[in-house]
Amino acid sequence: MIEIKECMLQLVKQNLKHDKIVGTICDFIDFKEKEGFRFGDLVLFHYELFGGKGNEINQIAAGMEMLILAIDIFDDLVDLDNQDLPWMKVETSTATHIGLALLTISQLAIDESFFDNKVKLEARKMFNKHIVRCISGQQWDAENEIYNESDYLSVTKEKSGSLISSACLLGTIFTNYQQPQIVKEYAEHFGIAVQIANDIKDIQRENSKNDFLHKKKTLPVLYLLNNAAAEFEELKRYYKGDIQKEQIQSKQSEIVALIKKSGAIEYAKVIMQLEINKSMKIINTMDITEDSKERIQSMLFR
């Protein structure tokens, strides 16, 4: 993880000459380090798993984390649901410029590496396709045009599955492994499972970051909105705009307790486990050693 952070800082200082922005980005990177560089770790893990050698992959992993930081910034600027984050405490114009710089530097991390040019071209093409998929999923999510489980899974596959898939594929492409499509498939199912886990946690928050306060249509929320029981009527009316946020917020503890008893959490956990099972099933079909399969599962499902 130290190597990823040092590479991120180096990439920023090499490519940006605005000292104030460089300092601000370094602060953002310090903040991200506290939650861990999970996506960069996936790059490193897959590279080593499939026989990659050398430290050049650290720069690729750093580029992946630069993308994640950029996506986080843009997502939070759209959602406006967490003002405690460091990029929400600077001017919107500054945060936007930083997000754009990070997005560009994530590409330069690949371009300026010492890998073979043909492989770098393949990696960059994959990387850009997944970025576009993520943006499409983010916009779909922002529009909140999600009405059922199928809609949710489609959006989540694009929004979250594409990013985890991108990290796993970046580590794979720079090796000689010949079946990247399989990696893409198991990573996408894992990405959906991760998002569902986050949604389960978020809907049980008793603070301003709870998803239902912001009318997000996550899997547990959809369970409630599609439930005919009378106790969920108030929440439905809130999502329709018939009730003010302050009224719901005043009853947040009561609503969270209701959600915990409703079956919504259990329902979401079942769907999450199905996605994990799909991912594990794909991993078990791979033409690799049993030890390698176990290592992938341990890395993903820890």
TrEMBL record:
Belongs to the FPP/GGPP synthase family. Its cofactor is Mg(2+). The keyword tRNA-binding does not apply. It holds the Pfam family polyprenyl_synt. It comes from the Bacteria. This is Polyprenyl synthetase. GO terms for molecular function: metal ion binding; prenyltransferase activity. Keywords: Magnesium, Metal-binding, Transferase. The keyword Metal-binding applies. One of its GO terms (biological process) is isoprenoid biosynthetic process. It comes from Schinkia azotoformans LMG 9581.
